[in-house]
Here is the input.
Amino acid sequence: MNCRRSTGRVYAQSPMGPGNVSCRDSLLRSDRLMLVFQLYSNLNDLWQQSACGQCVTDGFIGLKNDMLFFMATLNQTLTCFDKYKQGNHTELCKNCKSIYRALNELYSGMEENQTLCIDIEDAMNMTRRLWSRNFGCSFPREETVPVIAVSSFMLFLPIIFYLSSFLHSEQKKRKLIHPKRAKSYTTLMNIQDKQS
Here is the structure.
């Protein structure tokens, strides 16, 4: 059986060719340096590492619904950026905040579901760079408030401890123990003079 098909396609589960070697292996390893095989392996590795299968439907017919929804939300965000990028960026930050936050939450959800591919990651990195660096926008995260509250409490905890310890402890007056033999320093000096 000949390994070349009339359409020129080679399938992963192709029939066996001469010498009981699959047509796929026969064609991919036909030259001495195996350039076609190395190219195929490198492209396959790139495809796997980029998680391109997360964004493309089975059979490579089109994009998955998650990818299409993300791209639509991304386009809305970029349209908002374009609309307000001239002039004062505070208008952009205020008017595009909700759509940018929606895009950010969509990305976080896709990250948790592991439905990201490299195209989505690159698009989100570019959008975040525009939002923070180019336009100077930011919005406080909800988790910063509890962190600041707990940090403040921990900072003042030693002060509260030492202050309460000082206020609730009994202050003892220092009592000097007076020697019974020598009433004063001058008397002690007189005694020493008499002995010499």
